[in-house]
Design brief:
With 118 residues, the chain is an all-alpha fold. It has 4 helices and no strands. The longest helix has 35 residues, at 44-78. The protein starts with a helix and ends with a helix.
């Protein structure tokens, strides 16, 4: 019974790592993918498409990062002594937390700039 529990916790740690990397990838894609719409001269439609694409990717990265953070914290809390599982859970926590922090800092920056510039 203990082996099955250790396997499940190991899977949770691995899932947390994957979700953290995926969330950082989505946030990076939010800045790379819209360049096509902005550089090809689509006009207003291209700007709107790029904006919606960025918002979709950033919010998706935040949701995936938050779920990875929760999964990693559950795996770290229930870990019994396997150092590999503990390392994977910590890496997942760091990646997911970094992604969520980037999104929160971007949103605070955008709202502060909008408030003080207007």
């Amino acid at each position: 019974m203990e082996i099955q529990s250790a396997r499940k916790i190991g899977r949770l740690a691995t899932v947390s790592c994957v979700l953290g990397a995926l969330s950082l990838g989505l946030i990076a894609a939010a800045f790379i993918a819209p360049l096509k719409y902005l550089s090809d001269g689509y006009g207003l439609e291209g700007s709107l498409a790029a904006g919606f694409l960025m918002v979709f990717f950033i919010l998706g990265g935040f949701v995936v990062g938050f779920s990875g953070f929760v999964t990693g914290s559950i795996a770290l809390r229930n870990e019994d002594g396997d150092h590999t599982t503990k390392r994977r859970a910590i890496v997942g926590l760091v990646l997911s937390g970094l992604a969520a922090l980037i999104v929160l800092l971007l949103s605070v920056y955008i709202f502060l700039i909008k408030q003080f510039v207007s």
